[in-house]
Each structure stands twice: as structure tokens, then as C-alpha cells.
Amino acid sequence: MIEFEVPEKITGVMNVIETVAVNMMRPVARYFDEHEHEIPWDYINFMHTAAKAMGGGGTSMAAGDKNREGPRLAYQRLAFMVEGLSWGDPGLYLCMPGGMLGSAAVAAAGTDEQKERFLKRFKGDTPVFDAMCMTESQAGSDTSAIRATAVLDKTTNEWILNGEKIFVTAGHKAMLDSQGFIVVWATIDPSAGRAGMRSFVVEAGTPGAQVTKMEHKLGIRASDTASIVLQDCRVPFINILGSPTVETTTKGFKGAMATFDATRPIVAAQAIGLARATLGLLKEMLAEKGVTIRYGLPRQKLTSIEKDVIDMEIQLRSAWLLVIKAVWMMDNGKPNSLESSMSKVRAGDVVNKITQKAVEIMGPLGYSREYLLEKWFRDAKISDIYEGTGQINRLVVARLILEYRSKDLS
Fold this sequence. Notes:
Blueprint: H1 8-34, H2 41-53, H3 74-88, H4 90-93, H5 101-109, H6 112-119, E1 130-133, E2 149-153, E3 158-169, H7 171-174, E4 181-187, E5 197-203, E6 209-214, E7 225-236, E8 240-241, H8 251-288, H9 304-331, H10 337-362, H11 364-367, H12 373-380, H13 390-402
Parallel strand pairs: 1-4
Antiparallel strand pairs: 2-3, 3-7, 4-5, 5-8, 6-7
Helix pairs in contact: 1-3, 3-8, 3-9, 5-8, 8-9, 8-10, 8-12, 9-10, 10-12, 10-13
């Protein structure tokens, strides 16, 4: 049964997260927004040390990284942490050392040996980063269009990867240190479609893997987004996640896609933290102008601004409940593909509506760089794009509810 009281073990962590968000993230949020590609090492090193002190390895998305309160709270704990850090600043949150999307893929599709080999790195003495490499110039939401290839060299028993990946979140930092790694999606048989799709762990420093571009972005500018070229990049045979043979079904592809059941609610939690920050600042600014929200009155007696703020609060709370349900199911081993995509859709909608409405309500002040409202408006849009766009997640929800296959509803 889902409980609506925050577990005590999570509450203790959240007190630390709030302190970090207020004192280390908010004061430098504008600076790193304006100095894109400058790495916030002071914040990164502090968070790595703090995570070790709390017994964790960063904000790990890896289910194999058991937090000390036990696996039944691992993803719930992570959702609360991400929500709190994103309240501080979503771009800086994405600079957190520790397991991110790459490690989530290892946890979802890797063997016990692979989990031990790659995930334990986040508990070391220095910060380690990882990244997921999926998107290509012709393959965004349609992962079946991925053209990156992986060919097995039977002489050396190595996979040879070729292709280019774009819009890789944290790709630059993941390639900086020898302990970092990226997870590359490629096909071992282009004629097999999705059945031939696999993911491969490519460790930083591997010859043939190179960061070629750093994107300049609308929002989350503190976080790097990179292009990575793979040219005759050789990785050990054991670095493939999942079966090395092409099955007649899409089992291998589905195993890789299971990553998103874990990560989409976490991306939704990021959106919720940003929406909560926006709503909080909006109410503070309104109060300074003498505008208070009169709760409890009939709707017809409320001003337009009061109705807007109350509606935003309703949207925010309902979206957060969807996130909590999705991560609770993940912790308890229940299939959550539907709830995962639902939480992502709802949170992506809500954060964009709230940030836009906040800018509109405050007018010139909302548009001014004097306040963070305009920055948060820019930061919000990514929540509806990465980890599957809002349109794709709506398709996922529809297919699961109607019991359609992708070829029946696209």
C-alpha cells in the first residue's frame, strides 16, 4: 500500500538537500546559466563528499545501487532528492556526480558482473559521471531508426562501434575521467530492426570515442550536452548489455527500453522541483506587491490571479502524486511502464504551464533577468523533450491502455 507520509529515512536526507539547494545552488544558478560549459567543480566535489557521508554514491538511478534504507525505498528516495535539488537549480542538479542515465541502463539490462564492475565506481574517492548515447541526427523518438552499428570482431572478441550520437546529456563530463563511461545504443543487425538493438558500455578514454561538439542551449545551461563520434571504437565483448545474439522477438530492445521505466519518473521529479520553485517565488513576489491568495473562498469570489495560483497548486500536487506512484511501484518490483510515462507526460505539461503563467502574471518582472522566473521558463521545456517527448509518452500510454502494439498505433 502506498503511504502518503514521507518516510523518516527520506526526511533526514531531504533536510540536507534543502540546505544544499538554498546555500550552494540558488546563489550560483544565474552565474552558471550565463557561463555555459564552465563546470561547477566546487558544487560537484561537495556533493560527492556529502553523498559518500550519507552512505550513497550520488543521486544514482541504478537499482543495483542499494541505498542503506533498503531497495524498497531506493527510487522514492531518489525522486525526493531530485525534486529538492531541481528546486535549487535543474541545470546544476544535472551536474551531480554519481549514476545517471548510463548507470540506469546498466542496472536495467546488465548482468550482475556488469553492475558490480561499473556501478561501484560511483562510491570511489573522486566524482564519476556517466551518460546515455541514444539520439542520432535521424533517430530521435524513433529508436528503430538508429544507424550506429556494432560488429563483432571474432579474432579479438571485441565489438567495433561506428556512428555519431548527439544531444548526450553529461556526455562531456562522462568522457573526462578514466572511471567515467557512456552507454551507446547500436544495432548488431540492421536488417533485424528493433530486435537487433543493443546497448554497449564504452569507457572514457577508449580509442575511437570522441566528443566533437558542445551544444549551446535554451535552458539547463549548467549541464553539458555533447555530440560523440564513434569511429572504429573497440570495446570488450563483455561490455554488451543483454544477449549478443539476435532473437526472433524484440526482447533485447525491450530490456534496454526498461531503462525508461526507472528514469522517466525521475525526470518528472526534476520538473516538479522546478515547478515548485517557480510557484514559490511567484507567491513571494505577489506578496511583496500586496497580493495574497485567499484560500477557502468560493471560486466566483476569487480574483483572476488567485484562481491561476490555486489552479497551479492543484496541477503541481496531482503531478507529484503520479511520480510517487511510479517510483513506489519501481521499488516494489511492480510493472510501471504505464505509470512511468503518465508521470513524465503530466509533469512535463505542468512545469511548462506553471513557468509560463508565472512569467505572464509578473509581466516585465517575469521577463527580466533580475529574477529567476525567466530562467526557469527556459529550463522547463527540456522536461517535455528528453527521456521521450511528451508526444511519444502519450503514445506509450495509449498503447498500454488500449493494448496496442507500436505498429498498430503510431
